[in-house]
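Design a sequence for this backbone.
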């Protein structure tokens, strides 16, 4: 089972308009409402690929009830802690000639609710993945991901962390099996990452020195740099440039693609290729990609190269 944790899930309200003019009345030509949040998106793509998955986290208020209803419609299993106060956030994504986002804050999460979430991890074992993905709310301790990793340590659970800032930094000493991050998150950790494959690999090794086992860096345009716990680093060139339909979920799709490939015994190069294909398919999708779109992207994308 792939368990995903999303501390601050969202209702994602995706809007398309011909023009976004601040200060003026703008009319939409398309509107969609989806259950969202990084970990939730990982679960949704895993489910599309046929993997069993359960989404964990927190919901609150009427928006939380709507979120749960929409997620139930997808068929994804979930076990969210319901908070007594606040409301699940609404994230607005407006697509005109480019995409503009406005993300809500979400509810306050008390300490006892965090402990209830940690308790749900006590059943995980050697056949399971734990994916900790997304931002940490301001009122939640920055070491929360480290605490959750510690909760499953020593039980054979495979772990993936896709986070930023102090939440990621604090999680590194817990030796997550895979750290997946983008260029912006890497820049924040190392003070500005070079944009050459060898330079990015060197930065990834800094994260490994801090405790991470393997590191996957997502590049713009569906490329990637992967540095394994042992063996040669790999660079996958970006796919042929296409205008992205929307960028929401590309990073989560990459994580889901990685888990799928490792679950089915792909080689390391093919795993990197499949993960990048999932991200590329997400960038071209109206929402999140289905299996057919990911497999089509996989056939188009090239083979990764070793980094000198």
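Sequence:
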């Amino acid at each position: 089972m792939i368990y995903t944790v999303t501390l601050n899930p969202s209702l994602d309200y995706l809007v398309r308009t011909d023009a976004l003019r601040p200060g003026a009345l703008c009319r939409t030509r398309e509107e969609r409402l989806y259950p969202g949040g990084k970990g939730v998106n990982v679960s949704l793509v895993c489910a599309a690929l046929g993997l069993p998955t359960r989404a964990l986290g927190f919901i609150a208020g009427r928006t939380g009830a709507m979120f749960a209803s929409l997620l139930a419609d997808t068929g994804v299993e979930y076990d969210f802690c319901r908070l007594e106060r606040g409301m699940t956030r609404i994230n607005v994504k407006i697509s005109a000639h480019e995409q503009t986002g406005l993300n809500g804050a979400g509810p306050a999460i008390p300490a006892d609710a965090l402990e209830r979430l940690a308790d749900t991890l006590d059943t995980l074992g050697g056949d399971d993945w734990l994916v900790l993905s997304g931002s940490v709310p301001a009122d939640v301790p920055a070491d929360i991901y480290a605490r959750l990793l510690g909760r499953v340590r020593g039980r054979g659970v495979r772990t993936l962390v896709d986070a930023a800032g102090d939440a990621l930094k604090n999680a590194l000493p817990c030796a997550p099996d895979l750290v997946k991050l983008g260029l912006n998150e890497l820049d924040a950790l190392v003070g500005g990452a070079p944009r050459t494959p060898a330079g990015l690999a060197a930065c990834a090794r800094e994260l490994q020195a801090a405790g991470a086992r393997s590191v996957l860096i997502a590049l713009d345009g569906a490329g990637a740099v992967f540095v394994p716990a042992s063996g040669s680093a790999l660079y996958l060139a970006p796919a042929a440039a296409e205008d992205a339909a929307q960028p929401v979920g590309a990073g989560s799709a990459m994580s889901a693609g990685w888990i799928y490939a490792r679950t089915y015994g792909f080689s390391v190069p093919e795993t990197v290729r499949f993960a990048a294909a999932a991200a590329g398919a997400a960038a071209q999708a109206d929402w999140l990609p289905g299996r057919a779109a990911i497999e089509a992207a996989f056939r188009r994308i090239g083979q990764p190269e070793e980094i000198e």
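Residues 111 and 140 are 8 Å apart (CA to CA).
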